[in-house]
Amino acid sequence: MTHIANYRETFLTYLEEKVVLTEPKNLYEPILYILQLGGKRLRPVLTLMTAEIFGTSREKALDAALAVEVFHNFSLVHDDIMDDAPLRRGKETVHEKWDINTGILSGDAMLIIAYQLFENYGDGVFRKLAQLFSKTAIEVCEGQQYDIDFEVRNDVTIPEYLKMIEYKTAVLVGAAMKMGAIVAEASEKDAEAIYDFGRNLGLAFQLQDDYLDAYGDPETFGKQVGGDIIENKKTYLYLKAYQNSSQENQESLQHLFSIQPEDTTEKVETVMQIFNESKAPEAIKEAIESYTKKAFDVLETLNIEATQKQLLKAFGTQLMNRTV
């Protein structure tokens, strides 16, 4: 969609202007590196789009959008350290390219930079942005801790998993949109509604990621298909398959998600077979549609033009039909 590309271009131009290499080089170079690695730029685009939807210029929302993107990438730097991940977006992770200490310190600096960006707004807007940001940041940390805890648990429930992805992923999507509304000084009712729209879309987005990891086209997905299975991540697909399987298949899943064979081909094939037999792919698609519908239902309560509602609906539809 051309308008999405247009928002992204506006944001990337601003990113290049604002994020420059300064001293000490070993602190700021990794920040520049991670921010220039690419990615969908979904969250800052949503901030800019929401500001315009509520009647202000996208330029006014650029600092809030940049704060969201800097925070998101800060969380990725620290996540990669915790996961000991070698690659991020096909390139070396910060702690691999430099070292763990650099990754920790540069990540810490990014969190502070994100807060500093809110200082460019007047007192009332600054206060609301900072409060929302603090609430969201702690929820993202809670989501990450749930994710870590779930790695060693065999009794994770689907509601627990949904809460984890809500905190780890969806709240930041909701916050990105609400920040646009705050900058535009929209009503509290509309700001809350757009947050709920984003949060539900964020849940659908993460579930779509779970689905694409197992069933996506490796040519377009950009990641190794079956990566979650190889890494023993108990996603929605795993939990639904386990719930709907025979005792024999449940035991197979538990065993397969406790091993790390050198050749993972057979493991992935067996797990996918159990997923298919249990109708887990159909179940996750239903969940994606359900959260997308919840997001669209929220649009009816918003005090904006019908054309703007259609714009948000088209964006949500595009997001759910993505292959990357």
Provide structural commentary.
This protein is an all-alpha fold. It folds into 2 domains: 1-168, Farnesyl Diphosphate Synthase (Orthogonal Bundle), CATH 1.10.600.10; 187-324, Farnesyl Diphosphate Synthase (Orthogonal Bundle). It has 16 helices and 2 strands. The chain has helices at 2-18, 25-35, 42-53, 62-83, 94-97, 100-117, 123-150, 158-183, 188-215, 218-221, 227-230, 236-243, 247-256, 265-277, 280-299, 306-320; strands at 87-88, 91-92. It has a two-stranded antiparallel ribbon with strand order 1-2. Strand 1 (87-88) and strand 2 (91-92) form a beta hairpin. Helix 3 packs across helix 8 (158-183), helix 9 packs antiparallel against helix 15 (280-299) and helix 12 (236-243) crosses helix 15 (280-299).
List the helices and strands and how they pair.
Layout: H1 2-18, H2 25-35, H3 42-53, H4 62-83, E1 87-88, E2 91-92, H5 94-97, H6 100-117, H7 123-150, H8 158-183, H9 188-215, H10 218-221, H11 227-230, H12 236-243, H13 247-256, H14 265-277, H15 280-299, H16 306-320
Antiparallel strand pairs: 1-2
Helix pairs in contact: 1-3, 2-6, 3-4, 3-8, 4-6, 4-7, 4-8, 7-8, 8-9, 9-15, 12-14, 12-15, 15-16
